[in-house]
Inverse folding.
């Protein structure tokens, strides 16, 4: 096995377990890569090199002492998204309005990854409070896409995907409330999985089950294996999804039987999909047909104006409580969302909750009735936006930022509302040389079956060697070098 910056997390874990490489050696490879690219990409809001080195050295000692009962990802480096608490680290949610106070403990999701053996390298950049589809903030500045430094890697998991895409991490932690894993994965040529509602038990649910935790990866196997870590059932929580019949990683062992695949070409938000994103989903349909699946075009019947109203009203309501935040120091959008939330009548919130459930029942019907097993869409209606584009009208109209974000979340956000599992696969390159993902959406609680199909697609149309040109800087092994196309 060639080991280098584009090695997957599972592969690194196996190499460490076999004593082919030490945790410290793996960590130093990636810290050097971060040093090489950070000035150009701006992917970290907080680096913890010394703490990571101390953790890796302790793991080296455990291996030298003969420890064999190693957790799944023992010694594999991982950056954590800058919206999550890591014990002893200040977490400002990428906002000037949040104090620089160390977290008392890991949040539940981070704790699961720590127990799995990951070595945390720091906190990656995100937009303020993770509320928009690019990674730009007053606190962190702009994070750039390694495929084109004038473009955004998307948001809110922008720092994680940019550092992973350039080979400065083997995997990245993320979260997704409207496309924050899948959109950035699409913009940077990576795999991004949003699990089903309730698959990853929440500590609490600040808005009705839209957001969930996950990872951005190079391979479907890494996405499946990390879901096995995160899919912890906590019966105290509002949303709980029963466990699969077998570990998610086992889903990749066999190809699925022929499936009914529905192609959806119309976004949930009132925007148009461009020709290149539609070409990506059409090509994916042809690939699936060649694999023996039955592909038909369908429309989920999602009223765009209704969906926009329901989603944005919920988004506003979620900003009603910002404890410990200095509202004078937050950005215009967060301040406006908070102001609107204070004026939102409780009766409206209840009516929106009712409307979301009714729309979900309508739009999920094709899966429930057996019309389709899986739906495919472009992951995003357009390609990666230029740096700064989302905020061009923010001073005159803060809400314009959200309306512009429809161009990135048009296909992803509906499935947060509907609670369905969805994965973005890097199957297409746009004519400007930038990646374009295709989103695969499974039925209710069908994460296992979705991953099985994703594994089949990856074997049929592999993407591992397709990385941005700048990522080859400092790569010594020519045996794994691809052409970037």
């Amino acid at each position: 096995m060639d080991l280098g910056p584009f090695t997957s997390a599972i592969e690194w874990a196996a190499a460490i377990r076999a004593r082919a490489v030490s945790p410290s050696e793996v960590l130093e490879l990636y810290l050097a890569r971060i040093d090489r690219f950070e000035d150009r990409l701006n992917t970290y809001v907080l680096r913890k090199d010394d703490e990571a080195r101390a953790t890796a050295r302790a793991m080296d000692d455990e291996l030298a002492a003969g420890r064999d009962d190693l957790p799944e990802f023992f010694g594999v480096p991982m950056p954590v998204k800058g919206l999550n608490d890591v014990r002893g680290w200040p977490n400002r949610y990428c906002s000037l309005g949040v104090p620089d106070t160390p977290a008392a403990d890991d949040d539940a999701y981070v704790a699961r990854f720590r127990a799995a053996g990951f070595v945390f390298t720091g906190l990656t950049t995100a937009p303020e409070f993770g509320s928009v589809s690019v990674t730009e903030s007053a606190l962190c500045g702009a994070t750039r896409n390694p495929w084109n430094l004038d473009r955004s890697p998307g948001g809110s998991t922008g720092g994680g995907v940019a550092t992973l895409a350039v080979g400065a991490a083997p995997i990245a932690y993320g979260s997704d409330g409207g496309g924050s894993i899948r959109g950035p994965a699409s913009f940077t040529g990576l795999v991004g999985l949003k699990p089903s509602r309730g698959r990853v038990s929440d500590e609490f649910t600040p808005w009705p089950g839209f957001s969930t935790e996950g990872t951005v990866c190079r391979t479907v196997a890494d996405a499946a294996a990390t879901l096995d870590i995160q899919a912890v059932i906590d019966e105290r929580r509002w949303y709980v999804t029963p466990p699969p019949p077998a570990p998610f990683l086992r889903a990749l062992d066999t190809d699925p039987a022929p499936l009914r695949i529905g192609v959806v070409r119309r976004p949930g938000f009132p925007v148009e999909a461009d020709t290149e994103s539609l070409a990506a989903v059409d090509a994916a349909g042809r690939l699936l047909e060649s694999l023996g699946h039955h592909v038909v075009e369908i429309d989920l019947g999602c009223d765009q104006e209704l969906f926009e109203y329901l989603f944005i009203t919920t988004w506003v309501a979620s900003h009603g409580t910002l404890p410990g935040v200095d509202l004078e120091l937050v950005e215009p959008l967060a301040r406006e969302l908070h102001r609107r939330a204070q004026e939102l009548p409780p009766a409206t919130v209840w009516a929106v909750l009712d409307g979301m459930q009714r729309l979900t029942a309508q739009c999920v019907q094709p899966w429930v009735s057996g019309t389709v097993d899986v739906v495919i869409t472009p992951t995003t209606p357009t390609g990666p936006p230029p740096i700064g584009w989302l905020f061009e009208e923010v001073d005159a109209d803060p809400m314009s930022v959200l309306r512009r974000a429809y161009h990135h979340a048009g296909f992803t956000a509906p499935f947060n509302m509907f609670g369905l599992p969805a994965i973005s696969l890097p199957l297409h390159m746009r004519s400007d040389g930038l990646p374009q993902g295709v989103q695969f959406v499974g039925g209710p609680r069908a994460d296992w079956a979705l991953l099985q199909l994703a594994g089949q697609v990856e074997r049929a149309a592999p993407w591992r060697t397709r990385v941005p040109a700048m990522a080859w800087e400092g790569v010594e092994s020519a045996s794994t070098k691809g052409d970037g196309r």
